[in-house]
Amino acid sequence: MRTLENALRRVGFVHVAGVDEVGRGCLAGPVVAAAVVLHPDRPIPGVCDSKLVPAIQRERLYDRILKSAAAWSVAAVDPTEIDRINIHQASLQAMQHAVMALAPLPDIVLVDAFRIPNLPMAQRAVLHGDRRCSAIAAASIVAKVTRDRQMLELHGRDPRYGFDRHKGYATAEHLIAVARFGYSDVHRRSFRPPTLFDTID
Length: 201
Known about the structure:
The chain is of the alpha/beta class. 45% of the residues lie in helices and 15% in strands. The longest helix is centred in the last third of the chain and has 24 residues, at 134-157.
């Protein structure tokens, strides 16, 4: 998975960042993006798409990434802003903020599927990047663990919705809770939740 990053380093790009976001399809909670520059001499075995890694292993990899990476950062956009600008723009904004918070700034940015507007450095959109590029996979793990921890905090404040289990996604349990209690302050009001019949189909 480091082939693309290594190829870019060979042609002169020193700091190669991977960027990814999580929480795009949720009914509640923020969208969170991470940017990671992996150190070329500190490989991290097991780094792959966060969706393919069990939660316990994600936590271990998260710690290793933060200790071994040359640079990393996270950024989030909250539900109120998501409702104001829409989820696509919020995802791009979170990724742009994560990249610009890196120190030093990267020479090139590899992004999972999208191009990020208003970046002052080169970038490349990589289709299925979280499965093809180590830096993007590392970013997906950092973003996922960060957001999951935030959802656990939200669950602690209001346990009615079960955020500790579904992390804000539109599960049957979540939809039942929304039907019973209505939206909370951390729900995205611009999202039309599916019906229970949609989830069964």
